[in-house]
Amino acid sequence: MQELLADPPFFGGPGQGTRQIVELFVAFGLTALIGLEREIQGKSAGLRTQTIVGTAAALILLVSKYGFQDVLQPDLVVVDPSRVAAQIVSGIGFLGAGIIIFRRGSVHGLTTAAAVWESAAIGMAAGSGLLLLACTVTAMHFMIVLGFMPFARRLAARLSGSIQVHITYEDGRGVLRNILEACRRRNWQLTELAADPPGEPLGAPAGHVGVQLTLSGTGILKAPMLLADIDGVSGVRQLDEDPD
């Protein structure tokens, strides 16, 4: 009875050993790699956000596994070690929702929000001792973000597709007419055209206006580069590439 009432040690008690420290550092290191990649890509949730999410998820998992050992008693106090860890998934959902925005008819931030969710999952795997799985998913992340896009571009260059582009151009010189003519010569279909409100795009040179086009056709992924070469065009940005 005295052993049950004794205070646990501050350091070195259950759940505070070398193994748990290693699991925290694995979560820290792996999610820092993901955060570094997001930072280099200029995304809103970069190195600090991804690392904090992954390390915190690992800590919460460890708390759920070991944080209540001092109150457990056989046949008297029994707890489910997954009850706290399960809240990580729903909590990260709120964080991801804050990253995703909808602007000018396009959704931005989906990939970044998914990366935050992935960092939480990697942290949970590391915190639960599944270090091999955590390392494997980290490697898969880089395969996805670095390998899938070039493959998708090459495939789309051979097949028909659709993209949204925002073009900033000099007003009063017939630039928009030249843009539409360039699309017609390449058999790209214009399915939607929307001019920016007055005063947008922000930061554009004086005398420049913006327009959003939805184009479809074969080899459509070449459109941003080709349209940017038209005289009078000052900027072309593809809207469906998750800029956030």
From TrEMBL:
Residues in MgtC/SapB/SrpB/YhiD N-terminal domain copies: 24-152
Keyword terms, alphabetized: Cell membrane, Membrane, Transmembrane, Transmembrane helix
Pfam families: MgtC
Coiled-coil regions listed: none
Membrane topology type: Multi-pass membrane protein
Major localisation: membrane
Protein's cellular compartments: Cell membrane
Residues annotated as transmembrane: 20-36, 45-64, 84-102, 131-152
Family the UniProt entry places it in: Belongs to the MgtC/SapB family.
Protein name: MgtC/SapB family protein
Organism per entry: Mycolicibacterium arenosum
